[in-house]
Design brief:
The protein is of the alpha/beta class. It has helices at 2-27, 44-60, 75-82, 96-106, 113-116, 141-150, 165-177, 189-198, 208-216, 264-277, 281-289, 299-319; strands spanning 33-37, 64-68, 90-95, 117-132, 156-159, 182-185, 203-207, 221-225, 251-259, 293-294. Strands 1, 2, 3, 4, 7, 8, 9 and 10 form an 8-stranded mixed beta sheet that branches. It has a two-stranded parallel ribbon with strand order 5-6. Helix 4 runs parallel beside helix 12. The chain is globular, with a radius of gyration of 22 Å.
Length: 325
């Protein structure tokens, strides 16, 4: 009799647990939600996180709190996120480097986005712009590449960090065209653009949001932008694709992720809410001010996009032997 009583209690507990899981998901969020950002406050990814946090809080009725966890190219934040409980109360707002490249560059199996991250939606896309110091004797992209061929190793490119999309695009261009320049790595976009303006380096593949003010005031000259269409902020600047270089399409994405194992009801609710937010004209304008386009994808479409980016850029990382110092 005692055995059957214990067995009955166990079955009851199991049934309660199984039945309460969907209820908990349906009631989500019942408390504050944390958005982990793998960069310091003030950058593009942090800005995107804070834009959506405010709207998520308004629409879902609970605080969405941004937690900046910078370091190791995003590896610290990514590893902490991958270990978090998949209950919808810890989310990740990440970009190319922390999501796709950081474990490969660090040569550590700290996490793998395919295994540990559940894509919810893209948030924004930011094109890159090839910008040169005014002293560079190249008025267009062809002249720039010709100059690099004539003077291998003479020009220096300002990179905001090893393994960033900026850096990988630079490596892809050199490898594809058989040209060579020096790469100077900085700790972020700000010191890189400062040295470009000062003439200590000659050019950069820069986030358009960073370079735009300096392009407009003549501190640097824009030669080409990435992306499938011209950037609305500098419509006179051609794309790499229209100049015959379709393979040089490096953009920075920001995206929203949940830990693997998060209930489907929560993922669906988050995606649907984000789709509404990213169509709001006021939100579109806020991203426009950042030099980014608000872009929403279904979880499946976002996963396919990440697969394609992974397949394109990880070989570049390996071929260039990019690794942390």
């Amino acid at each position: 009799m005692r055995f059957f009583a214990i067995a009955g209690i166990a079955v009851t507990a199991l049934m309660t647990a199984l039945s309460s899981a969907p209820v908990a998901a349906q009631q989500w969020p019942a408390r504050s939600v944390k958005l982990i950002v793998p960069y310091p406050a003030g950058g593009n990814v942090d800005g995107a996180a804070r834009i959506i946090a405010d709207k998520l809080q308004t629409m879902l009725g609970q605080p969405f709190i941004v937690e900046n966890k910078a370091g190791a190219g995003g590896l610290i934040a990514g590893e902490a996120f991958a270990k978090s409980t998949p209950d919808g109360y810890t989310l990740f707002v990440g970009a190319n480097g922390p999501v796709l490249f950081a474990p490969e560059i660090a040569k550590r199996d700290a996490y793998n986005w395919k295994r540990d991250f559940l894509p919810i939606t893209s948030i924004s896309m930011t094109p890159l712009v090839l910008e040169v110091h005014p002293s560079v004797a190249a008025k267009d992209l062809k002249e720039f590449f010709d100059l690099a061929r004539r003077e291998p190793g003479k020009m220096t490119m300002a990179s905001p960090g090893a393994g960033t999309t900026n850096h990988l695009l630079s490596e892809l261009v050199q490898s594809t065209l058989g040209i060579q320049w020096v790469t100077a790595h900085y700790r972020g976009n700000a010191p890189a653009i400062n040295d470009l303006i000062g003439g200590q380096v000659q050019f950069a593949f820069d986030q358009i949001s960073v370079g735009l003010p300096f392009i407009k005031n003549g501190n640097v000259r824009a030669l080409a932008v990435t992306g499938s269409h011209r950037a609305s902020w500098i419509p006179d600047v051609p794309t790499f694709a229209e100049l015959g270089y379709k393979e040089f399409d490096g953009q920075t994405f920001t995206g929203l992720f949940a830990p693997a194992g998060t209930p489907a009801e929560i993922v669906t609710k988050l995606h649907d809410t984000m789709a509404t937010i990213l169509k709001d004209p006021a939100i579109v304008e806020k991203f426009n001010t950042l030099g980014a386009e608000a872009v929403t994808m279904t979880p499946a479409a976002f996963e396919s996009y990440l697969e394609a980016e992974d397949a394109k850029w990880i070989p570049v990382v390996r071929k260039a032997n990019i690794k942390t110092d």
